[in-house]
Amino acid sequence: MEAEQVTEKILAEANAEAEKIKSEAEQKQTEEQAKLDEQLAEYKKRTKDLIEKAAKDEKSHILAATKMALAKQFLAEKRKILDEVFATALKQLQNLPDEQYRNLMTKLMLESTETGEEQVIIDKNEKRIDQQLIDKVNEQLSPDKKGNLKLSEVKEEIGGGFILRRDKIKTNVTFDILLNKARNDLEIELAKQLFEN
């Protein structure tokens, strides 16, 4: 499964869940509005002049408080759902079959390589990215790149993916970074949808 397909699947699941949460929030707001209307009718029975002023103030205050509470609840639910979705996505990436994983890493290296002379830093437990895979990437690099990638002797705890290092410049292509970027993009999209309505 390509990173783009995984990202599309993640975005589709998160958008569906966001729509569900938005619908529940709208229903709760409707219920709160009904309760508020009931309170206002009761106040009007007592004193018309007093209630007209109090109703405006009370309604504005309760609606503002309700909207704030619903927004907080929506954000908390969204974070919880996104945490679950992206934890699942990370496991799926880490557990890709060997061939799919190597194909994905090859594609990402080809896209991320600047000069073709970088060192490839991998996770301490990484077994599927080896010099053979890097040699394959070197063969596929465009002619303007040197095709001189090498597996670094330095290994780090990065979880999955890799880091390309050339002198002091590092290009981080770890799963954490890829998923965080996808999550940020998704959160921006969800925020746009929330505030459009």
List the keywords.
single chain; 197 residues; 2 domains; 5 helices; rod-shaped
Taken as a percent bin, the fraction of beta residues is 5-15%
Report the major sheet: 4 strands, mixed
State the end-to-end CA separation: 34 Å
Task: Give me the number of helical elements.
Answer: 5
- Count of discrete structural domains: 2
User: Order of helices and strands, N to C?
Assistant: HHHEHEEEH
What does the secondary structure layout of this molecule look like, with pairings?
Layout: H1 3-46, H2 48-94, H3 98-112, E1 119-123, H4 131-140, E2 150-156, E3 161-166, E4 169-174, H5 175-196
Parallel strand pairs: 1-2
Antiparallel strand pairs: 1-3, 3-4
Could you explain how this protein is built, in words?
- The protein is α+β, with helices and mostly antiparallel strands and 197 residues long.
- The protein folds into two domains: 3-95; 98-166, no CATH class.
- The protein is 70% helix and 12% strand.
- The protein has five helices and four strands, in the order H-H-H-E-H-E-E-E-H.
- It has helices at 3-46, 48-94, 98-112, 131-140, 175-196, and strands at residues 119-123, 150-156, 161-166, 169-174.
- The chain has a four-stranded mixed sheet.
- Helix 1 runs antiparallel to helix 2 (48-94) and helix 3 (98-112) crosses helix 4.
- The longest helix is centred in the middle third of the chain and has 47 residues, at 48-94.
- It is rod-shaped.
- The model has no long low-confidence stretch (mean pLDDT 82).
